[in-house]
């Protein structure tokens, strides 16, 4: 008996009716949202003919590219701010400064992606997507993926075909003599967008503080001079702020370490000490309760990660822990199929840093090779975000 035994025969009319209902009232399908999206995407691939499939593939860079144009030229903003109804193509041409004939093509493409809608000939209204793409988080994310990552993705094939070239795909694609983080220092728009994106991208998800009772596990019997929390490569310092918000009576030093140019823009107040530090060199803060690394190890290959760990091991006291906040992907691929986001993220690490996301057995080997013991791995999102608690054996 087939697993679809309750459905005797496919009925395109019913399917079309149901799909229209999804488009009109998506909220009614919220409970099955993910499975519907997964199947709808697969159904698209199964239904497309080769010509259609190829067109989709050939223009696959355009959604990101046109969003970047639309954000930069305030197309979404103009549509959303116009409370009087549709905005004409003429007004958009005036506001954007883009040649009207060119703009016509751009807007036409954007309507095919449901980023905007042509409500009547040459008149446009915003969609759900226009509004989402106006959020600062997604403006920064688009700048990062478009300006920083896209040239790197373009160079992946070169990189894999030339494995002896020491440059990352990022360095090849950007024709940059320096690594990504050094390059950011001379690209302030991209640097600021990247660090804000790092700060905010997971704001809607659970965090490590939901699974680590930091106050009771690591902040007992401290005095004001005890280094309680060292955020290594902490970027804008949002995790220091989150820790202090959750534990306002925490006693001890909270220290944010990063490159000097990044520290200058950090969001932390006086309560957080800022310290310029290169994590490849010996850790100057001795005997901290916790050395915390969020999204640091996935930027580095195993050899560099070992160097980072070795730079920290001499500073560990028996009560110190290394907290690694990164993806821990399962060793077995998920039954429902691979997850697009984490598979894509791994390739992003590859092109930007010649690194990859790690599976649990790879983490165990890495930390074992460094001579450290994994005391716990606590997962806190459905995407494998986890805190690895490691310390001296
Ligand atoms: C992916 S970001 C993560 C930032 C922050 N931990 C977070 O999760 O939002 C990596 C950070 O490592 C910093 N970084 C890169 N190389 C570094 C080095 N050699 N020493 C210290 N920090 C470094 C970058 O400036 C950046 O802030």
UniProtKB/TrEMBL annotation:
Pfam families: Dimerisation, Methyltransf_2
Transmembrane segments: none
Gene3D superfamilies: Vaccinia Virus protein VP39, Winged helix-like DNA-binding domain superfamily/Winged helix DNA-binding domain
GO biological process terms, semicolon-separated: methylation
Keywords: Methyltransferase, S-adenosyl-L-methionine, Transferase
O-methyltransferase dimerisation domain sequence ranges: 68-135
Top-rank lineage group of the source organism: Eukaryota
GO MF annotation terms: O-methyltransferase activity; protein dimerization activity
Keyword Iron: no
InterPro entries: COMT-like (IPR016461), COMT_C (IPR001077), COMT_dimerisation (IPR012967), SAM-dependent_MTases_sf (IPR029063), WH-like_DNA-bd_sf (IPR036388), WH_DNA-bd_sf (IPR036390)
Residues of the O-methyltransferase C-terminal domain: 227-372
PANTHER family: O-METHYLTRANSFERASE DOMAIN-CONTAINING PROTEIN, PUTATIVE (AFU_ORTHOLOGUE AFUA_4G14580)-RELATED
Descriptive protein name: O-methyltransferase domain-containing protein
Taxonomic placement: Eukaryota, Fungi, Dikarya, Ascomycota, Pezizomycotina
